[in-house]
Design brief:
Blueprint (H helix, E strand, L loop, with lengths): L7 H12 L7 H8 L3 H14 L2 E5 L3 E4 L8 H24 L3 E7 L2 E7 L15 E4 L4 H9 L2 H12 L12 H14 L2 E4 L11 H6 L3 E10 L2 E11 L5 H30 L2
């Protein structure tokens, strides 16, 4: 891609990425690493200096990033804190209620399963997975995220998915119908997927994949204001317990777990900022 066709934001980010590789860099080094002409690099550096992300040391020392760039990674660091806060709470939940849990966070146009309590559950038949992708429109985690995230964010995600050629993203091509599904999720307070996490079947032994067809995921969001920090999915066997019974006996404890994860995350991040 030529420099002329790259969006201004992309060029600015390429400068920040180039500068992140060293404590300080001269103009020529930054331009070379970012793949930009020096004239464009100078303009971008001036803008980044004005915004507070870069400072010019001197002609001989060059430029360096300021501490302000740490704010750009806040979303990523917050997701790590959410998962760290969730792990012991999820283990305690599974010890009490027996059913395994998964927690997922958004990553582009999919959810990523970051942790699960399969090992702690005496009734789990799901495989133990970490860092596994979960498409928005198939899994309970993704549907819960889309149902409860802000309208502007949901519209952006669904619009991107509607341009996808993947069969798993086809529901996004009918946003009105899909919005009806999301309204139903918001009404009852949870998303439900039979067979759950279908995208994980690729590469799995057939027996394990078939076994997981007997499992349903019930997912709720971990909220902070109107923002979805993560989503929790309780995995249960629908031949053993019905949706109505799970909702009656486990939905409120699952919601309380989500609230406790948010409170613990808030305490952790507040302590880290002192």
């Amino acid at each position: 891609m030529s420099e002329a066709t790259r969006a201004p934001v992309a060029r600015a980010l390429s400068v920040l990425e180039a500068m992140n590789a060293a404590h300080s860099l001269h103009l020529g080094d930054i331009a070379a690493r970012a793949g930009l002409p020096k004239s464009s690099t100078v303009r971008l550096l001036d803008q980044l200096i004005e915004a507070g992300y870069v400072e010019k040391l001197s002609r001989s020392a060059g430029y360096r990033l300021t501490s302000r760039v740490q704010r750009l990674s806040w979303g990523f660091r917050l997701s790590d804190a959410v998962v760290e806060a969730a792990e012991p709470l999820m283990r305690a939940f599974t010890k009490e209620h027996r059913w395994p849990l998964f927690i997922g966070v958004v990553d582009g146009d999919q959810m990523i399963v970051r942790y699960g309590t399969v090992a702690e559950s005496p009734v789990a038949i799901d495989p133990l997975v970490y860092e596994a992708p979960s498409p928005f429109l198939l899994g309970a985690l993704g549907q819960a995220y889309l149902a409860f995230c802000p309208d502007w964010e949901r519209k952006l995600i669904v619009a991107r998915l509607s341009r996808s050629r993947r069969s798993i993203d086809q529901p996004a091509k009918n946003p009105e119908e899909f919005e009806k599904i999301l309204r139903g999720i918001r009404r009852r307070g949870y998303a439900l997927t039979s067979g759950g996490l279908r995208q994980m079947k690729r590469g799995m032994p057939k027996r394990a994949s078939d076994a997981r067809q007997r499992v349903t995921g019930m997912a709720v969001p971990v909220m902070r204001g109107d923002r979805v920090l993560a989503c929790l999915s309780l995995r249960y066997m629908h031949a053993v317990i019905s949706e109505q019974e799970v909702a009656k006996t486990h939905l409120e404890p699952l919601r309380e777990l989500a609230r406790e994860i948010e409170r613990t995350t808030r305490q952790m991040t507040a302590a880290g900022n002192e």
